[in-house]
Amino acid sequence: MSLRIGNGFDVHSLVEGSSIILCGIIIPHNKTLVGHSDADVAMHALTDSIFGALCEGDIGQHFPPSSVKWKDADSSIFLKKAIAVMRKRKYEICNIDLTIICETPKISEYSIPMRTNIATHCNIDFNDVSIKGTTSEKLGFTGRDEGIATFASVLLKSYE
Questions:
Q1: Which of 36, 132, 134, 154 could disulfide-pair with 49, CB 3.0 to 4.6 Å?
Q2: Which residues have CB under 8 Å from 39's CB, separation 6+?
Q3: Helix axes 111-122, 76-88, angle to 10 degrees
Q4: Residuewise pLDDT in 10s, the chain (160 residues)
Q5: Residue 11: which residues within 8 A CB-CB, separation 6 or more?
Q6: Chain centroid to CA 103: how far?
Q7: How far apart are CA 129 and CA 153, in angstroms?
Q8: CA-to-CA dists, residue 117 to 2, 40, 51, 88, 128, angstroms
Q9: Residue 21 contacts residue 72 (beta carbons within 8 Å)
Q10: 30 touches 18 (CB < 8 A)
Q11: Cα(46)–Cα(7) distance, rounded to whole angstroms?
């Protein structure tokens, strides 16, 4: 059996709005994330972690932000592509660990639906997905509520 670990990181800025999308879940908020696609910073970091574990580059190589094709795209498209590449290479996900860094919203209030959605997209057990939030103690751009950052780790194992 072969194991591979991947890490991903993404950042998106916040502007005035009415909701944000994290892990495919729409969360009411007084701001919105800005990006070429739907700016789901958590799903982007997870997608990058899978591509990284497979040494398949990064999300921008597969879905260039310069391409109008991906303008306002649902980030689940990106995750589905990473999973398809993973399966083609005969790997499966052991577990996922996401850390979302923001002052607001409070991630714990939304972690169950986020975990459920990620588990469904990845076809893994709910208990193999960890999603947690932390603040930066009001320091830096996340502390000033100017953006949200996410770290993602994934462990893959071969099934051949």
A1: 154
A2: 12, 20, 21, 32, 33, 75
A3: 40
A4: 899 999 999 999 999 999 999 999 999 999 999 998 999 999 999 999 999 999 999 999 999 888 888 888 899 999 999 999 999 999 999 999 999 999 999 999 999 999 999 999 999 999 999 999 999 999 999 999 999 999 999 999 998 7
A5: 41, 141, 147, 148, 149, 150
A6: 18
A7: 10
A8: 27, 13, 19, 22, 12
A9: no
A10: yes
A11: 8
- Tell me the residue type at 34: V
Tokens for 83? Answer: 């999973």
3-state secondary structure 42-91: HHHHHHHHHHHHCCCCCHHHHCCCCCHHHCCCCCHHHHHHHHHHHHHCCE
Amino acid present at 93? I
Task: Write the single-letter amino acid at 100.
Answer: I
